[in-house]
Amino acid sequence: MVRHVTVSLLSAVCAWAPADLAAQSTAVPERAGTLFIVGGGSQPAALVREFVTRAGGAGAARIVVFAMASVDGARSGEAKAADLRELGASARALWLTREQANEDSVAALLREVTGVWFGGGDQNRLAAILRGTKVERAIHARFRAGAVVGGTSAGAAVLSYPMITGDELQRRDTTESWTRIQRGTVQTDSGFSLLTNAVVDQHFLRRKRHNRLLSLVLADAPHLGVGIDEGTALIVEPDGRWRVAGASAAVVYDAREAQRSNGAAPVLGATGVRMHVLPAGATFDPRTGIATLR
Description:
CATH class: Alpha Beta
Number of helices: 10
CATH topology: Rossmann fold
Structural class: alpha/beta
Largest sheet: 9 strands, mixed
Oligomer: single chain
């Protein structure tokens, strides 16, 4: 497997990127790209087509798939790249170690990409490999240049700061997780910080994760969270506005203007928390807190 990946990396360098990484930073305009955050599960075909369209469309989209969040990611990443190629994109999967992610030749593979996709699995695995590396910096540079960056499940969670790790800090003697809305129960990490004004949760309605997200939104900044259901995407436009697409809905908890529990009270309370349940076509502007239905 390592031999196969090495051959893929070398051919990619020849196909997409000169070795001069200095030119990359000088060519990046200061504007944001698009985030395409999917809550996991099966993706409707229309979502996959829209991701390709956002990356430039058939014949122009150049997409890299990172699937290291899963132990089976080498196979699933290739399958995802094949699906994207069927829609006319030039797509390849890169299976990297942390050492490879810090090599200039590997970071150079992203110089001309128009889309980046993160597969599902365990967001902690993905963050441990890419966070703080030259490849992560290259992803940020492409995002600033207007590329679309997306992911599903773990690949969705890792996009935000803070990032929900999936671990419960005060697990009780029960088969149920996150049975209370309580301070200090949700473990977070830094993620890739491509979305910094809200925390993202995934598989949200399907796995009933309201307590988990509410605990984090009430306890810690930025006091804004969005739970995205399976088969559903939260699309963050370059101007910062959100739009929901797909089969189900996204739920927004906005406690930025709420009166929240004082001090370190373990059981959290709040008044004036705003909740929005947003199906496909609905929008939310995090700057104003205004949501609209289609």
